[in-house]
Hints:
Rossmann fold, five-stranded mixed beta sheet, ABC transporter substrate-binding protein
Amino acid sequence: xxxxxxxxxxxxxxxxxxxxxxxxxxxxxxxxxxxxxxxxxxxxxxxxxxxxxxxxxxxxxxxxxxxxxxxxxxxxxxxxxxxxxxxxxxxxxxxxxxxxxxxxxxxxxxxxxxxxxxxxxxxxxxxxxxxxxxxxxxxxxxxxxxxxxxxxxxxxxxxxxxxxxxxxxxxxxxxxxxxxxxxxxxxxxxxxxxxxxxxxxxxxxxxxxxxxxxxxxxxxxxxxxxxxxxxxxxxxxxxxxxxxxxxxxxxxxxxxxxxxxxxxxxxxx
Length: 269
């Protein structure tokens, strides 16, 4: 039902078992593009329940609750009545979502692989992901403070606790300047961000929102805005860019740790 679920399935070599995909937010990973091109795209964003059922799936998979909204695939209970089980990531569970953790992500990958009858592929993928994560965590980054800037200009949406950015920050030994927020993705305020003055700003490069949501446009805004132009990170050009989809639970989450860790090392932080 969206890119993160799609890339997990493709990474498990299940492209030939996919009745459809939707909601691509970034260019698909190069290693998965050939397999992705063979999967029918049901909608640019979320397909309707009618569109989903037209594809005659035996199983629906999403990492976001919004995929099962009334104007999308519809409630999971309704799909179950039609004998179409609908899986939702533990990090987006309707009643009690779990805080993101890499162990939880790896457990989900193995669980999905088992559901499709290929548990050995899940174990192999998880082993590869663990090795990459371990390699990404070898640096020492002290108490470097990070602002994870996802989207928005008048109201910036940033990363708080419980999500991929929080887990990556903790693993790297750094500090998230919005760790005290009540939400995983709170609405921030530029004056508040200026007061917290992060050492480094991690930018989501979002292709879905057009150029206005690209990392380049975010940097331009931060340099022109009277409040943010005075931030130490902005004045020194301490930016790290990651694909927007890597800030959500997926096979890209480890890549986020790799990219931020490498970026901090390059910045001498």
